[in-house]
Fold this sequence. Notes:
The structure holds two protein chains of two kinds. By secondary structure, chain A is of the alpha/beta class. Helices cover 32% and strands 14% of the residues of chain A.
Amino acid sequence: xxxxxxxxxxxxxxxxxxxxxxxxxxxxxxxxxxxxxxxxxxxxxxxxxxxxxxxxxxxxxxxxxxxxxxxxxxxxxxxxxxxxxxxxxxxxxxxxxxxxxxxxxxxxxxxxxxxxxxxxxxxxxxxxxxxxxxxxxxxxxxxxxxxxxxxxxxxxxxxxxxxxxxxxxxxxxxxxxxxxxxxxxxxxxxxxxxxxxxxxxxxxxxxxxxxxxxxxxxxxxxxxxxxxxxxxxxxxxxxxxxxxxxxxxxxxxxxxxxxxxxxxxxxxxxxxxxxxxxxxxxxxxxxxxxxxxxxxxxxxxxxxxxxxxxxxxxxxxxxxxxxxxx
Amino acid sequence: xxxxxxxxxxxxxxxxxxxxxxxxxxxxxxxxxxxxxxxxxxxxxxxxxxxxxxxxxxxxxxxxxxxxxxxxxxxxxxxxxxxxxxxxxxxxxxxxxxxxxxxxxxxxxx
Lengths: 326, 110
């Protein structure tokens, strides 16, 4: 006999005063000074509360947090391989459904959250993430985007923007702009191909209450959800550690990052400025873009202008591929 | 039944199971990373909670009894995001050497 699955109903926070003072991602971890992903982890933990199971595919937030056999997580947390964050979440959710059906577990279904980096979500971990979305498990997949493989020494990933200087794309005489390729659109990968998904959103550490509410909204949906969270990385993007939040705000003001929600086919946009600043305002604060010339900046500006006509939607963006003749 | 018989004293558990911390993780004290610490002027502070929400290390908290922000000296890494984001300008960076309990000491590095 099937039993009804009790799920948690998380309330939205209206202001900073309503955000809980309790911490479940406690102080005492080995992330860098001013770490953006650590800030994301703290805010997501505040949003989910203690009745949660977090999964950490390999990445900064696994390597730097759980070193020397001490971890800062006050809830159940498990390391998964970088390829299978979505698969482990599927298994845990399915096991809970069976235990509830057989009457062996009486409580509410815990929030199952995968905290994958950009490599664990849309590069190496793409197949497991896609399979979780396809089968419709009641879990939340979060991609904290620091735009590189930062824990192994800032290698390029599919989320790295055009022109970035990473250890795999150093600028030189042959390739003066550093990274030649334009990044993948992560939310579009999920929206476009997974009919079981009803909620996809992007959020930034610059607007923490908005980020917390989006996490709670995604968890209140029965079924898979995907969140793409912007997390500036002072070590990888080479800026001052005190400027993490400032850089995240500049990304929104220049259009490099757009906060939006996709709910059952409907787009809503948040924090859009009246007039976008030029992308140079964002790039000049980061040493990874220091080598770019005006021609490269114009190419980046053209890409962003084309994207901003319909952010988050599948539109034709005129980008010249690396094999095409100029 | 397994074909290979492992003696009881050689069995090891799979993976590592760690106890969860409650309020803080004392196994990883990060206070000795910083060279400057944020010092708060409680009279100018408006308790807007910006430092509390933007701190990656969760080192700022609102004390409900005194209605003042409390700083955690053991874990603050000195990134100074709180100073950059403070709208009331009530925080100030002060060198660690100015304090008797300053953690950066050349004669006693660790």
